[in-house]
């Protein structure tokens, strides 16, 4: 049974049909890339999966459960974690405290009020920071990080909740070439922990670690398959030559 099943999902905003009958499946431990021209519906699909938007039609099943109308917090408890394109770190807090707050989201209010969680979570926080090459910046405010490092921090925060499925919406937007290279290195080991859906414009970036690619165009699935299949698809080539 697939971890995620998206069946016939349509999303309408007034006169605009952003998604039109989209089907998508993601298996356990699968890295699935979403690509397509600007305005093809990639981010809208991610928001429908995460619960930030409700589909107008269609169903979304996660781990066998229908979550089509479930609120975002319920989906998060079930094991979905989303990182939007725009970072949501708290810039005035330290890098350490941003990850700590993400971990504390799993704790009871009483434990937080009595400050019972900070010391027990210290090892987990530093482990995540070391994994994302941020340990040396732990005591600095998040605002002092470079753009790329801030993106890595938010990915670390999203993974701190130990999701079964991580959704990344253009995590390399605005990064330098070196930051993009490092981001690829940081994402590859995630496969041992969870599945991944990543929205990305750059096929060169995701082809080395994605198992499956789905191409969206004008709110519909144009093509889905392996990286080699997508690269050799005449339909995909025509779309990228004429609309990107």
Produce the secondary structure layout.
Blueprint: E1 4-13, E2 16-26, E3 31-35, H1 42-50, E4 57-62, E5 65-66, H2 72-78, E6 80-83, H3 95-104, H4 109-113, H5 122-131, H6 147-160, E7 165-169, H7 177-187, E8 195-199, H8 203-206, E9 212-217, E10 220-225, H9 227-231, H10 234-243
Parallel strand pairs: 3-8, 3-9, 6-7, 7-8
Antiparallel strand pairs: 1-2, 1-4, 4-5, 9-10
Question: Can you put this structure into words, describing what you see?
Answer:
With 244 residues, this protein is α/β, with parallel strands linked by helices. It has two domains: 1-79 and 164-244, Rossmann fold, CATH 3.40.50; 87-162, no CATH class. 35% of the residues lie in helices and 25% in strands. The chain has ten helices and ten strands. It has helices spanning 42-50, 72-78, 95-104, 109-113, 122-131, 147-160, 177-187, 203-206, 227-231, 234-243, and strands at residues 4-13, 16-26, 31-35, 57-62, 65-66, 80-83, 165-169, 195-199, 212-217, 220-225. The strands form two sheets. The protein has a six-stranded mixed sheet, with helices on both faces. Strands 2-1-4-5 form a four-stranded antiparallel sheet, with helices on one face. Helix 3 runs parallel beside helix 6 and helix 5 crosses helix 6 (147-160). The protein is globular, with a radius of gyration of 18 Å. It starts with a strand and ends with a helix. 38% of the residues are buried.
């Amino acid at each position: 049974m697939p971890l995620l099943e998206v069946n016939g999902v349509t999303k309408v905003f007034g006169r605009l049909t952003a998604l039109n009958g989209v089907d998508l499946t993601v298996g356990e431990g699968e890295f699935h890339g979403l690509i397509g021209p600007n305005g093809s519906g990639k981010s809208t699909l991610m928001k429908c999966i995460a619960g930030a938007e409700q589909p107008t039609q269609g169903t979304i099943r996660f781990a066998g459960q229908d979550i089509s109308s479930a609120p975002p917090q319920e989906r998060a408890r079930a094991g979905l974690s989303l990182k939007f394109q725009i970072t949501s770190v708290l810039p005035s807090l330290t890098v350490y405290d941003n990850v700590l707050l993400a971990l504390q989201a799993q704790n009871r209010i009483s434990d937080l009020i009595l400050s019972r969680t900070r010391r027990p979570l210290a090892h987990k926080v530093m482990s995540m920071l070391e994994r994302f090459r941020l340990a040396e910046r732990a005591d600095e405010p998040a605002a002092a990080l470079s753009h790329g490092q801030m993106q890595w921090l938010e990915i670390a925060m999203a993974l701190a909740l130990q999701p079964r499925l991580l959704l990344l919406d253009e995590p390399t937007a605005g990064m330098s070439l070196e930051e993009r290279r490092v981001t690829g290195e940081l994402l590859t080991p995630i496969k041992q922990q969870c599945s991944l859906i990543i929205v990305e414009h750059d096929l060169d970036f995701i082809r080395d670690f994605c198992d499956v690619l789905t191409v969206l165009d004008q709110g519909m699935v144009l093509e889905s398959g392996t990286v080699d299949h997508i690269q050799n698809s005449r339909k995909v080539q025509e779309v990228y030559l004429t609309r990107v």
